[in-house]
Design brief:
Layout (H helix, E strand, L loop, with lengths): L8 E5 L3 E6 L3 E7 L2 E4 L4 E5 H5 L9 E4 L2 E2 L2 E2 L2 H16 L8 E6 L5 H13 L4 E6 H8 L10 E6 L4 E7 L2 E8 L3 H15 L2 E2 L2 H11 L11 E7 L4 E6 L1 H7 L1 H17 L2 H10 L1 E4 L8 H9 L3 E3 L6 H14 L7
Parallel strand pairs: 1-9, 9-10, 11-17, 17-18
Antiparallel strand pairs: 1-2, 2-3, 4-5, 4-6, 7-8, 11-12, 12-13, 14-15, 15-16
Helix pairs in contact: 2-3, 4-11, 5-6, 5-7
């Protein structure tokens, strides 16, 4: 790379977390996809990690929000500003030339949603933009041989979406994108606590509960957890919950993921389905870390379900591989 060259950037633009890869340097950013905004003058107070720490802890005029919802842009202007922040942070504001960017989107994104991501990336400072579908990048990052004419099934559970795809010969044969992800697990905890424990909690507390007690199958390896919140009378209160509570809380979202897997199998050619039966299903994304989820899906489908190594990093690792093998040929783009 010459003195005046700008490194290529790979971005996993997630509903909950954004990861950035810079060619020659590796993964340099892994921060929440959150923007803190002053409502009075529309001024951005903070991005990423700093912004997330403000959730539920700031004056009324400061709001911390996610500019993406269910894997797609819900606030174009804030997404553009957040992308610019991450790109500038990744390569520095003093770069001599705008970078080329490979950015991921859910497989179920519409053409309008796809164009919005592309436009926002250009506006954020990219000179060239290529979009990859998340399950394809995840499959590469998981080490699957996507270039062979052989069926591979990937289940990628992000913050806002779950992509289930069958990949063969460098392409997605069939897929289904479910607008459900790790954030919905958090919301399921909030709903469960309110309806069954009469305790109001925030999403930050729900995320802690999910991490400590969350499960898709029965577990006996964790102690009950005391949870503080607000009672229906409006006063602070503490309730004790167990992993069995969370098994009930997550029953609906977990079964929706299973239903999506069934739907994709219904569309899968028999030869590729046979390949998947032999090689198994691979799971990626932060949501796949829910205790017992691979086992639950194995029990219901009769197919081996493998949790990929570094499931959170599979998409960005796949993007990094793609950049090295494709973008590395400097003649592709001018």
């Amino acid at each position: 790379m010459g003195f005046f060259d700008t490194p290529d950037i790979g971005i996993d633009l997630g509903t909950s977390t954004t990861l950035c890869y810079v060619s020659g340097r590796g993964i340099v950013i892994m921060e929440p996809s959150v923007v803190a905004l002053d409502k009075d003058d529309n001024h951005v107070v903070a991005f990423g990690r700093d912004a997330k720490e403000m959730i539920g802890r700031t004056p009324g005029k400061i709001i911390a929000q996610k500019p993406l919802r269910k894997g797609v842009i819900s606030d174009y202007t804030l997404t553009e500003r957040m992308l610019k922040y991450f790109i500038d942070k990744a390569i520095g504001k003093k770069s001599f030339r705008k970078p080329r960017v490979v950015i991921c989107i859910p497989s179920g994104a519409t053409e309008v949603e796809r164009k919005a991501v592309e436009d926002a990336t250009y506006q954020a400072g990219a000179r060239e933009v290529e979009i990859l579908e998340e399950p394809y990048a995840a499959a590469i990052g998981a080490g699957l041989s996507v270039e062979e004419p052989r069926g591979n099934m990937i289940i990628d559970i992000g913050g806002g979406t779950t992509d289930v795809a069958v990949i063969s010969y460098n392409g997605i044969v069939c897929c289904e994108s479910l607008k459900l992800g790790g954030d919905d697990f958090d919301e399921a905890v909030v709903k469960y606590m309110k309806e069954t424990k009469e305790l109001s909690i925030g999403l930050t507390t729900a995320e802690v509960i999910k991490r400590e007690l969350g499960c898709a199958i029965k577990r006996a390896d964790v102690a009950p957890l005391d949870v503080k919140g607000r009672s229906i009378s409006g006063y602070p209160q503490t309730k004790t919950i167990t992993s069995d509570d969370m098994l009930d809380a997550f029953a609906e979202p977990v079964n929706r993921i299973l239903e999506t897997v069934h739907n994709v199998f219904d569309k899968t050619p028999p030869e590729l389905a046979a390949d998947i039966f032999d090689s198994g299903i691979y799971m990626t994304g932060g949501g796949s870390l829910l205790y017992g989820l691979p086992q639950f899906l194995h029990d219901k489908t009769g197919i081996d379900v493998v949790l990929a190594k570094d499931p959170v990093g599979c998409v960005i690792n796949g993007v990094a591989y793609y950049i090295k093998k494709v973008y590395g040929r400097r003649d592709i783009f001018k």
